């Protein structure tokens, strides 16, 4: 490890032009997605009905990210997710909930 | 706060019954959004515990980037500029020789399209801010600090700089942990052994718990869940995230005055 750090400093700091180009292209399309949505709605008049639709997006997207993730998991992941919910419900402390989830998933994976 | 109350029994009335406006706080408060240093700091401080979790994920990304053949500097550059965890992890998984450039860039775009919906969801609060404030903040938008920001804005805080403050906290930990992971490389080995792969899921379970608004939330969430689980089986990448959000929003639009 130390030997590698000493030996490969030049390697670690190297920037391949092609790689940098791909990274910048990734950055460009990502920035486009991040600013594109609000740019659109800022330039189009929204009805109350549409705003009601937009207001459910936060929770809906969280659920959409989570659903397939958990569906692909097993009992260990489901149990750990339940643990996160339980700790959030009882303490409302995010850090505690995350620690419980990670410790839980490692424990359940070794047991189940 | 109760400046319109009649002087005689105004206080008692104001305290015993909630003001009519509180029931529509999410609609009424957007007009009072400011962009202050206090809001920035609140966002940063609130996000640090979450950013620590993101850091665990960043170490995993650093390790994967190292295994894909990226240098520490390249991995750090990607985290500093792209700043979108899931898409970065999938991109380095696609990394090969010769580099499938079009596939990587298009996949990143598709995975991150959900940010358009997330950004659009901020509009009711952001419409009073300047374009520089809006677009500068959006650059630092990630899943975790966006959800934290929505919670903060919905509570009626009016802290428009919350997204930027929380986003900078994410950025610092994300870039720092990427470097740590890329340097440590093979020493750490399999991220799943330490449960790091579960951090993102844990963050979202916690956020779902916070975004729950009672029974009215149930219908759009079931619509989103059903759509996402089915779409994930038949569509590549992360299109299911976008579809789940869109279907839930459509369902809400349809039942708006029903």
UniProtKB/TrEMBL annotation, chain A:
Q: Name one Pfam family in it.
A: AzlD
* InterPro entries noted in UniProt: Brnchd-chn_aa_trnsp_AzlD
**Bilayer-crossing regions:** 20-41, 53-74, 94-111
Asked whether the keyword Transmembrane helix is assigned, the reply is yes
Q: Which UniProt keywords apply?
A: Membrane, Transmembrane, Transmembrane helix
Which superkingdom?
Archaea
- Please give the name of this protein: Putative membrane protein
TrEMBL record, chain B:
Keyword Membrane assigned to the entry: answer is: yes
What's one GO BP annotation on this UniProt entry? L-valine transmembrane transport
Residue ranges of the TM segments: 42-64, 76-95, 101-122, 160-188, 194-211, 218-235
Do the record's keywords include Chaperone? no
Give the membrane topology: Multi-pass membrane protein
Q: Where is the protein localized?
A: Cell membrane
The entry assigns this protein to a family as follows: Belongs to the AzlC family.
Protein name per Swiss-Prot or TrEMBL: 4-azaleucine resistance transporter AzlC
> Where is the organism placed in the taxonomic lineage, from the top?
Archaea, Methanobacteriati, Methanobacteriota, Stenosarchaea group, Halobacteria
């Amino acid at each position: 490890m130390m030997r590698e750090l000493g030996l490969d400093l030049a390697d670690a700091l190297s920037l391949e032009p092609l790689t940098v180009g791909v990274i910048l292209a990734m950055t460009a399309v990502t920035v486009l997605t991040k600013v594109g949505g609000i740019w659109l709605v800022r330039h189009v008049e929204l009805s109350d009905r549409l705003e009601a639709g937009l207001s459910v997006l936060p929770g809906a997207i969280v659920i959409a990210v989570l659903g397939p993730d958990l569906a692909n998991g097993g009992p260990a992941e489901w149990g750990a997710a339940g643990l996160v919910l339980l700790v959030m419900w009882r303490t409302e402390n995010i850090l505690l909930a995350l620690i419980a989830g990670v410790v839980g998933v490692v424990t359940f994976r070794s047991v189940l | 706060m109760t400046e319109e109350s009649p002087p005689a029994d105004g206080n008692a009335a104001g305290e015993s019954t909630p003001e009519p406006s509180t029931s529509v706080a999410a609609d009424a408060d957007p007009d009072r959004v400011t962009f202050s240093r206090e809001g920035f700091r609140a966002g940063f401080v609130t996000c640090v515990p979450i950013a620590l979790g993101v850091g665990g994920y960043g170490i995993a990304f650093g390790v994967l980037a190292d295994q894909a053949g990226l240098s520490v500097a390249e991995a750090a550059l990607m985290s500093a500029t792209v700043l979108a965890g899931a898409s970065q992890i999938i991109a380095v998984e696609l990394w090969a020789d010769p580099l499938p450039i079009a596939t990587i860039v298009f996949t990143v775009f598709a995975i991150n399209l959900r940010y358009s919906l997330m950004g659009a969801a901020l509009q009711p609060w952001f419409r009073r801010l300047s374009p520089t404030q809006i677009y500068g903040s959006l650059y630092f938008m990630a899943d975790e600090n966006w959800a934290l920001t929505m919670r903060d804005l919905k509570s009626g805080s009016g802290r428009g700089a919350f997204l930027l403050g929380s986003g900078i906290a994410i950025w610092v930990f994300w870039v720092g942990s990427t470097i740590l992971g890329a340097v440590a490389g093979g020493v750490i080995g399999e991220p799943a052994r330490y449960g790091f792969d579960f951090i993102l899921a844990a963050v979202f379970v916690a956020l779902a718990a916070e975004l729950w608004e009672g029974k009215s939330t149930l219908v759009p969430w079931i619509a989103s869940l059903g759509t996402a689980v089915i779409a994930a089986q038949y569509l590549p990448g992360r299109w299911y995230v976008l579809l789940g959000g869109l279907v839930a929003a459509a369902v809400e639009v349809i039942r708006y005055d029903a």
